[in-house]
Amino acid sequence: MIYAGCDLGILSAKAAVIRNGDVLAFEILPYRNLPRQAAVEVMDKALAAAGVTREDVEYCLATGFGKKAVAHADGAVPHIMCLQRAVLGLNPGVRTVIDVGGHSFTAFNIGDNGKITESSITDMCAAGTGKYLEVMASALEMPVEELSQASLKSKNPLPVTSQCVILAESDLITYVNDGHDELDIFAGIASSVAAKIVGLVKRISVNEEIAMTGGVAKNGIVARELERGLGLKLANLGGVDPQVLGAYGAALLAREGEPGL
Amino acid sequence: MIAAGCDVGALTTKAVVMNDGAILGYEIARSRARAVLSATGVMDRLLGRLDLSWDDIQHCVSTGYGRNIMPFARSDVSEISAHARGAAWLAPGVRTIIDGGGQDCKAIRLDEKGTLEDFRMNTKCAAGTGRALELMADSLGVDVSQLGPLSLEATDPVVLQNPCCIITEIEIRHLVLEEVDSANIAAGINDITARRMLGLARNLGIRHDVAVTGGIAKNAGIVSCLERALGAELVKFSEDPQIIGALGAALIAADRAGRPGHHE
After folding, report:
1. Nearest CA of chain A to the CA of B225: how many Å?
2. What order do you get walking across the sheet with A105-110 strand by strand?
């Protein structure tokens, strides 16, 4: 039996297709301004990659910011439940999840019984999110992935103190014009993002093991700085792309029966 | 006598070349991360187009956030002074200037003689700036230059409340998801930007005539919001409102060229 999950986020759409418990395909599609079309497109890509058709899908659940706009879904589930399901499936020892997406920040604790005990969600500030990193990378005129990789080597991260994206961008431009190295600047930005994430996660309990999910989890330097800030190693999630975990969790829930049904 | 002004902004770099009190030409280009490269590139292109060389310029004044590191400029001047000078030269009746720049917004008041009296500038929040407008246009999926024309087709403008452009971006993305007409969202974006600009000017105290300078002045929707709120027409410049800082710098350069040994 084929099940699917679709996570329509604020900056990208993600889809997962599974057969029973096995992953057939994951797809990620960044989009600009047509969320409904992006949801259809990313699902069609994932189905094609899995070698199945829409008719083969037994049940599909949508999640994320645009979950109600996913035309091909049979139902919608909260994002936090999808993350919980996916993370526990990959590593049952996880007790704290930090999800940092394009425009959102979620942290939650999982009890020993597997239930969510405490959570904190903020979408009221872009500091510490993927959007912030994107704006900064574009001001440095380099792709964010390249900067994240290269700036791991920086020895002198520069302090970036502005919380506001736009004003931090001004600080950054001033650094560039003062002749500072781009990688030292980006290392400073990554460290300020990590500090912001640490501050947000400390609103709930920090219980081991800690897993990081969402697009920003793929950013090597932010993940490293976060480990330093927390004084802990992030949990192993079996090498699955942390950006597709919302969609993956939705697919797993689709297979198990939508919660509350 | 040839004088030049170069306004190195956070988002765009502008240059104006003047000869004996007349504008010979101007150039506007997107700023690169390195201000010196942006400015030199714009100046080179403009001089090339006018068939002039660097040696033909008697005095060049730089302004904008990169003004003190321009190797080719003989002296520099603050953006406030440059805008005041440029706007008053084009429109002698102007008494309040609202400059919607790339990464800041300024309100400048002139006295009866057209000289700088007082100003306000935003320092803690980017609302009301060109960059904020760009980010909001981007979340709507249109180019910032389309916001003006698009908003004129609005039938039921949305009301955006939050001053932060990043939070507003999320609000806009929700509206897009709900398939609200883009024209109505564009009108809402222009409206919130105009309100922020006006707030700064009211804090300074408004004296008529009022002019808007900077890239934001090219947005017809924002201009119409401001005119409605002020209950008066804005000054219409005979030149591109985005070059007024560079024009002011060129005028100041011409003054200084006439005063040998002048250093500021």
Report:
1. 24
2. A116-122, A105-110, A96-100, A210-213
For residue B144, give how far its alpha carbon lies from the nearest alpha carbon of chain A (Å).
14
Q: Give yes or no for a contact between B5 and B247, defined as CB atoms under 8 angstroms apart.
A: yes
Answer yes or no: are the C-beta atoms of B96 and B208 closer than 8 Å: yes
pLDDT for residue A261 = 45
What is the average per-residue pLDDT within A189-213?
90
Structure confidence at residue A124 (pLDDT): 64
**Cα separation of B262 and B255, whole Å?**
10
Q: Is the pLDDT of residue A11 over 90?
A: no
Give the model's pLDDT for residue B260.
Answer: 58
Asked if A19 reaches chain B (Cβ–Cβ under 8 Å), the answer is: no
B68 versus A210: the higher-pLDDT residue is A210
In one letter, which amino acid is B134? Answer: E
Query: Whole-angstrom Cα distance, residue B70 to residue B77?
Result: 12
A65/B contact by beta carbon, under 8 A: yes
Ranges under pLDDT 70 in chain B: 123-124, 259-264
pTM of this structure: 0.79
Q: Which helix (H) or strand (E) holds A144?
A: helix A144-150
SS3 for B234? coil
> Is the preceding omega at residue A258 within 30 degrees of 0, hence cis?
no
The verdict on a CB contact (< 8 Å) between B170 and A33 is no
Ranges of beta strands (E only) in A21-170 are 22-30, 57-63, 75-76, 96-100, 105-110, 116-122
Q: CA–CA separation, A158 vs A160, rounded Å?
A: 6
Query: CA-to-CA distance for A136 and A183, rounded, in angstroms?
Result: 12
Taking CB atoms and an 8 Å limit, are A173 and B141 in contact across chains?
Answer: no
In 3D space, the residue among B231, B223, B167, B166 whose CA is nearest the CA of residue B190 turns out to be B223
pLDDT of A100-110, one tens digit each?
988 888 999 99
CA dist A135 and A139 (Å) reads 6
The two structure tokens encoding residue A106: 């979620």
Closest C-alpha to A180, from A131, A140, A219: A140
- Cα–Cα distance, B134 to B56 (Å, whole number): 37
pLDDT digits (tens, 9 = 90+) for A23-79: 999 999 999 888 999 999 999 999 999 999 999 999 999 999 999 999 999 999 999
Distances (CA, A) of A220 to A79, A223, A226, B38, B213: 24, 5, 10, 32, 43
